Fold this protein.
Amino acid sequence: MDFRDELPVDHRLARVYRVGAGLCGAALLVFGCLGLTDGLAYFSTHGERIAGLSSNGLLSLISIVFAVVLIAGAVIGGNVASTVNIVVGTLFVLSGFVNLALLDSGANFLAFGMSNVVFSFVTGLVIATFGMYGRVSSKLPHDNPYWQRRHPQPGASEARRPVAITPRPAGTGLGRTSL
């Protein structure tokens, strides 16, 4: 299945995916660039405050990488942006859990503080929600391309079924049945 087959190019959901990826990517890009311009040590476990969050050079660099991924998804748009948002959002939430376990330890190589953990959870949920908007729900409208993909037209499945000819007793019909 090709991603572009499912969502029409001009569908209104594509704007939601693009805006979500673009805004979150821009915020991460600003955070990462601020950290790199301050000349933070790359592997400091205590970090410095940047925009209210603890950061070191490695976290700033990782933030820029994820910003580029999100912005690339926004430029491509459509299902690619949606999928990128879902994957990156999930990674942010997982990062929040991992770094929560590493707080106040020598293995805190990204210099996370509690504010970073909360930011990771909230940002991850926001990014993933942008990606899932209009794609994952039990109450999608019937004009939604994802709903239509999951619920083909009532005659479409019948047309795809092969027809077998079976012998029938004389006078009982045409002798054709669906498999």
Q: What stands out?
A: Residues 42 and 57 are 4 Å apart (CA to CA).
